[in-house]
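Justification of computing resources. Each target in the renewal requires a structure prediction run like the one illustrated here; the chain below, 162 residues long, is used simply to show the kind of job we budget for.
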Amino acid sequence: MIAVELAARLQDRVASLLLSATPFIDDENRRTAAERKPVAHVDPRPDGSHLVELWNRRRGFYEEGQEAALNRFIVDALTVLDRVEEGHVAVRNYGMDRRLPQITARTLAVCAPGDHYSLPALEKFAAALGCQTRVLSGGHVPLPEQLPGEFAKVVLDWAAAA
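Resulting structure tokens:
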């Protein structure tokens, strides 16, 4: 969202924009996102069961063998447990649909087939921004971490074509 806002605000200073796992936020998305259960918020409990709950809520974003990445997410989430959902709320409230028409930079939107936030609206996103899109062979939201070689190749090929 920060990259989208910078590209919209500083058109003459942003020549290229590559977005990974960036959801399309419009009124419909804001409404449905507000109805969804928070993905990273858990209430701490004395028996520590909130740790397993947080692990299980995020487990679906990572494939088997990617537990180290999930561990890093859990550590990050626990350091701000009382406000871990603030980022999701900020994204949901951002007026992206009104900012995309301001972007003039050459743009590529990349996401994964398992990204159930970004993938369903990828065509809508591309139409609103007039950008190219790529869906990689696997992965979820943490795509660069899950498929670093494939992700890097997409980025380098796209940059070389400029």
